[in-house]
Predict the 3D structure of the following.
Amino acid sequence: MKVALSRRYRFAASHRLHNPKLDAEENRRLYGKCNSPYGHGHNYVVEVTFTGPVEPATGMIANLGELDPFVEREIIEPFDHKYLNEEVAEFRNRVPTTENLAREIFRRLSVFRAAKLERVRIEETSKNSFEFRGD
Amino acid sequence: MIRITRKVEFSAAHLYHNPNFSEEENRRIFGKCNNPHGHGHNYVLEVTIAGEPDPETGMVLDLKELKDILQREIVARMDHRHLNYEVPELAGKVPTCENIAAVIWQLLEPKITQGKLDRVRLYESPDLFADCTGEADGGRAEGAGTTRTTTSASAEPGAIH
């Protein structure tokens, strides 16, 4: 039997989908209204899943007393109420699609030492979600 | 292969406490979940059964039958109970979401005779849930005798399961 623990976190941020290698017309065609020049925002929900043995002494895969402050430090503080294109170094040269955001969040959380990060799933809106499993 | 999922809810009390830890360690590792009088949650349980639909009935497993199994095996055992004191299957275990999901898996697996138990997902709150699946990962749940070393040493204050 395999047990996994999932936790959901939230942050609100703005972004603009724009590739400087393409001209204005191509950007508009490719990204539609996501290319609006001043950006727009979402309430992102980040669902993270960790696996590993359930420690007999605590009954836990990961202690939320440890995981919550880690995610707060690695994800919420740097991303919440920010303009991702300008304020997160990773996205100065990479389009902050939620696909790329899922990869970046996975990269940041994969160093959590107490359990193995299995999956990051981001709900950009209640209708769209993006998942990355590190592969 | 078709997967069918049935959802049920139950409300129960619990607290986190390991008698092998000192009072101070219990408080440090489990935070407010160690409050001696316990606290409660509205648990939401999603049970998924996988299988091929029977050619005669078109069903993997009659959902009514699954509903009855969940009522008998889980809700009757856990609803409006204190998980630390009133559910023998959890005796001696810290009733975390992980451990409760594993116990639910163990209770349900032998009762599913049509199709196969595929996943047990237990929500303690909308933002916290544990999944139990049949895949082997080299380390079973509780009591597997694993050598993971992230117990009290790495646990920090304020567990809020």
Notes: Chain A touches chain B through 30 residues (CB under 8 Å). The mean pLDDT of chain A is 97. Residues 82 and 94 of chain A are 16 Å apart (CA to CA). The radius of gyration of chain A is 17 Å.
